[in-house]
Each structure stands twice: as structure tokens, then as C-alpha cells.
Amino acid sequence: MHTIDVNRVLDHLRQLVAIPSPTGYTDGLSRHLMDTLAGYGFSPIRSRKGTVSCTLMDKGARHTVLSAHVDTLGLMVREITETGRLRFTRLGSPSYQALETEQVAVHTRDARTYTGVVQLQNASKHVNEELDTSARNQDTMEILLDELADGKEAVAALGICVGDVVSLDPRLVITPSGFIRSRFLDDKLSAAILLAIAEAVCGGMGLARKVTLHFSVYEEVGHGASQGVPADAEDMLVVDMGCVGDGLTCAETMVSICAMDSTGPYDYHLTTELIELAKANKLQYAVDIYPSYGSDAASAREAGHDLRCALIGPGVYASHGYERSHVQGVENAMKLILAYIGR
């Protein structure tokens, strides 16, 4: 079985998380993917909605799509208050608890960017005795801009409007012990794995089948892989975050194989094939059912694509918050993908 240095994945991850890409605001990330894949000698295709697909090797009897999404959670300005604060709605479903005190950037439609921070209203402990017990939601939280703009007109003069996208600081940290902490490991960590595979194919690594990479951009709102999937594809291996939490057996050091999520079961035979490959290659893996989860497989199926779909990913804890994985989980996920597309 081929191997890839995990440091190549981490290098790609650093680049991906540095590019803001909340759902609906993914042009910069799509351009990065196009440039990176073209630089490896491939011919990527970008759809009208921003999906990037790229065939790595056009040979073999079976055509497999490896899918990851590069859109992330984020916020959108829904109101500018009389005091110059911004009220927001969520893009996707980031945890309100994890949003509190996060650094953000507001992206205006005329290409200006302003920084700020998310806070609970009346956030001073010395003033608000109910600070610890107050509800955290879109009606009680607001964005404080790092600008001397103390009213609605002053904020409007900055060019900030309702409908502007707000991105969150990823805060990527890779520890000496191998832990990876960042927002948006769901799903930029998986996208980084796929880019490392593309890089390895460019460097001479062979594949046993036709393989197309598919990077979707609306997964967090449910229609990521509704288009852009090649018509002759037979299998879709979705590479997304593996869930870690109570009632599940996966850890951050493992590759998770999902048997079923809240949209229904994954293909029985393809999932079984992946389990047998994990066993044969002595990988650290877990098979779990995700209680509150959907992936690009669901949108592909709903769009009418006739595909066998399976889902794997490196174990990720604290999903939709400040997430954590481990390089061992990345290695196990990558080895399982390579074992699958190498046969």
C-alpha cells in the first residue's frame, strides 16, 4: 500500500483554513483549489456554483468519486443596531456557546474587511449578575466591531450592510503531541487529505481505478454534491469528519466508518468493503452510527445520482465548535482511502 507523509496533509490544511469560506462565500477557496490542482498538472473543472472536480487518473473499470466539502460554518449580518453593534444569523449551525468571544471578520460586498468579536449583550461580569445563566442565541449575542463606529449610520459609512458574510478565526494549532485543534476541521482536514493524494499522484503514485476528486461548497446547508458528480461514477466515498462523543466508539486517533447517519444507512456492500480493508491493513478504526449528521452523500442521492455511497473520516471531537483531531486519525483515514483506490 502506498504511503503519504502526513506533513503534506498538514501543509495543505494550513493553507485551506487560512482562506475564509463560509457557505456562499467560497470563491477564494475554489480559486485556490483550481490553482493547486492545475499546478500538479491536472485539469480541474469549476462549476457555476463553485464546486471543483478533478479527475486524477482516467483508467480502470470502476470510477470512484472522493468527495469532501470546503464550505464552512459562518455568520451573516441581519441587523445593525442603533448602538453600532451587529446582530447576526448563522450560516450552517455553529454552536452558540462556541461562538462567544470568537474573533471574526466582516466581509463587505465592496471587498472591505473589518474585524470584531462575538459577545453576549451586556457582557461585563461586574455589571451583569446574570451573565453566567443568560441564554446564548441570535437574540442575545452580537458582534462588536473593532472600529470607532458607535451608531447605525457610522457602521453604514464603513460599507457594512445586512447580508454581509462574517467568517470566524479558525485558530489552528498543531501540538508537539500530534493533536490538531482548529475550527473547520469539518471538512478542511479531509479536503487536505485529498489534496495530498492529488500531489502524490502527480509525483508518480499509481491508482488502480479512475478517481475523481469532488470538492463541494454548499454542504453545510444541504446541497453540496447535488451537482458536479460525473455521470459515469459508480461509487462515492465521502471523506468528512468522523464523529467522536458519548455513545460512539471512535477516538481522534482513529478513522471512523459511518454505517448510518440521520439521513439513513450507507451502502452496505461498500461499507463492508471498507471495514474489511481496515482490518486487513491493521488500521485503528471504528464503525459508528451518527445520530445528528448528514453528508454530501445525501444531496447526491436526492439529486438522482445512482451511486454506492460510503462515509469515512478522521475522528473529530467538538464538531461545529472548536474542533480537535490527531495526526494518527489523519494517517488512518488516508491509509484507508489509499487501500481502497489502490485495488
Write structural notes for this entry.
Helix content is 26%, strand content 29%. The chain is built from 8 helices and 19 strands. The chain has helices at 6-17, 27-39, 96-99, 152-157, 185-202, 268-280, 296-302, 327-341, and strands at 45-46, 52-57, 63-69, 74-80, 86-91, 103-107, 113-120, 141-145, 165-168, 173-174, 179-182, 210-216, 235-239, 242-244, 255-261, 264-265, 285-289, 308-317, 323-326. Helix 1 (6-17) packs across helix 5 and helix 5 crosses helix 8 (327-341).
Which descriptors would you attach to this protein?
343 residues, alpha+beta, ten-stranded mixed beta sheet, six-stranded antiparallel beta sheet, 8 helices, 19 strands, 26% helix, globular
What structural class do the secondary elements suggest?
Answer: alpha+beta
Instruction: Average the pLDDT over all residues and give the rounded result.
Output: 96
- Rounded to the nearest angstrom, the radius of gyration is 21 Å
The proportion of strand residues reads 25-35%
Helix proportion range: 25-40%
- The total of helices stands at 8
Shape: globular
Sketch the topology as an H/E string, one letter per element.
HHEEEEEHEEEHEEEHEEEEEHEHEEH
**Measured distance between first and last alpha carbons:** 9 Å
- Contiguous runs where pLDDT drops below 50 for at least 5 residues: none
Number of strands: 19
Query: Main sheet, how many strands, which sense, barrel?
Result: 10 strands, mixed
